[in-house]
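User: Could you check the structure of this?
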Amino acid sequence: MRFSLPPLPLGRFLGAPIYITASWFLFVLVIVPLYARQLQSWLGTAQAIALGAVMALMWGLSVLLHEFGHVAAARAMHFDVERVELGFMGGATTVRSEDDSPRSELVVSAAGPAVSLAIGLPGAISLLTGNGPGFGVDGAWGMLLSAITLANLAIGVFNLLPGLPLDGGRVAVAVLWKATGNQHKATIMASYFGQVISAGLAAYALWRVLSSTQPSREIPWVLAIAIMSASLWAMATASRDNAIKEARLAGQPLYERLMPVPVLDGREPAASASIVPDALVLVRTADGLAYADRAIVSSATGTLTDHATPLPEHRLLAEDASCLDLLHAIRRYDAPWFVVLAADGVPLGIVGAQALAGEPVALTE
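Assistant: Sure, the predicted structure tokens are below.
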């Protein structure tokens, strides 16, 4: 039996729920000893651990502010933000949009690193002017200010590396998408860039061990880098696999998988539905398309319109929709089926999750 702790809610930012995952606490267990070991030379053990914990929280806050940049950019473009999560690898912001484009991908992806670099910029200027990243402040406060500067600069610069799943990888997807006109091809290319970055991290970890005069002291750093490298590799692979699956679905017309459904005029008596063999009936009303349960309306009085439920716009798919369009609709909306309309608005049939049976894709994300 697989056991995992559910994410803990932290609050909301611009309406987006924020969660912290169990893996973030693993990050704390790794980062605190690393800081404490460096601080023990001029602080007591207890003080070094306490300051190390404060620095770990500072990292978490820096990552959170980074994610807030993504949220703010997404909200400015009127996109839905489902959630923000903090974990070992940093943060992740899940954005939903009906208007996906290279421009929106670029703006939302670049906003996070922009916030991180903006926070680290004052300390960087201080460093260049000779006062150090801690603004010339001595002691623990100076170290904390330096850590804030370096953490945000590191988060900003690292995330701008052009490989998935990093923000820079999504920026690369936007640029390649614009250049090639193919989002899936762009994603596949950026996933390979991500694996190159992962391999570079692994090589760096190995170099730290081989070049150190005390290899055992490098174990915590190497462990953290190794986890990051493995995670990047796995996430880049997952991005590529998902892009390949979605490209396949995008090439499959949805009309080939439709189920026929009767369409009745809403002005007809409700009892007229009794002659229809199907359980579901589509109804044309003065306000648009609706649907009704034959077993219920066939014994009712009045017209079909009186007992039909209006069909919302998001449950209507175009005749040229692909299986990928259906997958996106299923993931976004909690609906058992969707209606496919011809160019002239005539219903061609209905389609639901059963149309994707046998496809190697998850119906939820």
